[in-house]
Design goal:
The chain is an alpha+beta fold. Among the domains are: about 65-75 and about 150-335, 2-Layer Sandwich (Zincin-like), CATH 3.30.2010.30; about 345-455, Neutral Protease, domain 2 (Orthogonal Bundle). The protein is built from eight helices and 23 strands. Strands 2, 3, 5, 8, 11, 13, 14 and 15 form an eight-stranded mixed beta sheet that branches. A hairpin with a 4-residue loop joins strand 17 (about 250-255) and strand 18 (about 260-265).
Length: about 450
Amino acid sequence: MIRLSTPSFSVMASVAALTLAAGLGACATLPADPATPVAKAPMTFANDVHSYARPEIARVTNVALDLTADFAAKTLSGTSTLDIQGQAGATEVVLDTRDLDIAAVTDAGGHALKFELDAPDPFLGQALTVHFGPLSASETRQIVIRYSTRPTAAALQWLSPSQTAGGQKPYLFSQGQAILTRTWAPTQDSPGIRQTWSARIVAPSDLRVVMSAEHLNERGEPAGAGMSAWRFRMDHRVPPYLIAIGIGDIAFQAIDERTGVFTEPSRLAAAAHELEPTAPMVDAAEALYGPYRWGRYDLLVLPPSFPFGGMENPRLTFATPTIIAGDQSLVSLVAHELAHSWSGNLVTNATWADFWLNEGTTTYFENRIMESIYGRDRALQEQALGWDSLQAELAALPPGDTKLHIDLTGRDPDDGMTDIAYEKGAAFLRTIEQTVGRERFDAWLRGYFDRHAFQPMTDVG
């Protein structure tokens, strides 16, 4: 998610910091890239206190959604087909859900499977345990969950026409971070359990569906009764919080061959002009830390009631309409969300206690993009604004929450989404850069993204 600035930090790093720079973080698990066949589930995973999943026994490797949007009922309903891999002999998989109405669970052949839902927790929701026959070591088993979301699903925001810029049609968008994807898609909702996914979404024919994945049809396919179906696919493994959807009166305009803008038609021209710097920002990011690995980089500028700054959903950043200032003065938001395509989406915090690995690295990277495009003075200005924000945060937080790595046991992971993760994390990385030199630090950070691409990461060496 977005923070608009980065702090300055002038204290020289210690030898310990240099040691960390040489080997920051530890792989929590080493799943192969989707192009590589997977023989079995990884044996070790970080302990995620915000998930019921037991991935060391059985884990989700792919999610296939087939859902229909009902704007009158404010629900998504249909099926989620999950690919499961695990230990030889495993007879159950534990999933994360919250406020879902589960109608049935079957195997791929339609045979009913036994399942149970545990008592709900206010933050974590309910564990859904599905039982099946013993897995073999190299087997991929499919289960099919038929379910419906509720109008109160925390990840889904159903907007009335009056809450949109056009004022004529309804709108839906999702926000999965940190642990809200479980409110609209049953899966193992942990950032350390990366999954490929696909979706078929049926919506009213006068609306367009977009998602954080490759769009397989540019126009909706007839689905009967005034409805159209839209299909999507994500072949890279991603953490579940990055599965995102938008449905509404949405138009598109290209910026260049790999970037563009989705938004409501009345705002399209202004948004496309405002976001013209996106294309050179992608070039600058690649020059710094290696190739952009997600294909397209588009932005969805949401209706005025969108309550966030931005969200780094792969291939499709969700952005606040307040970025459309008329003078391109707020495009640091784009730099931030774009940087997440490396730090956060490519290499992801394995648990929410490691959130600073996502946001501190991204805030540092954002500032380097801004320096590349707009010069050193603009970058220093952004740093100073961020530093001031950090001081205010430090004064307001209890001492235990001013650490980069926070114990969030029994707490909402959103409690850790403060400027400590963003600004103090970036300050720490800048300290290392100042100590070892920019050239050496850039070489290390580029290698970090290459070595750990499509993997979760902890900050424990």
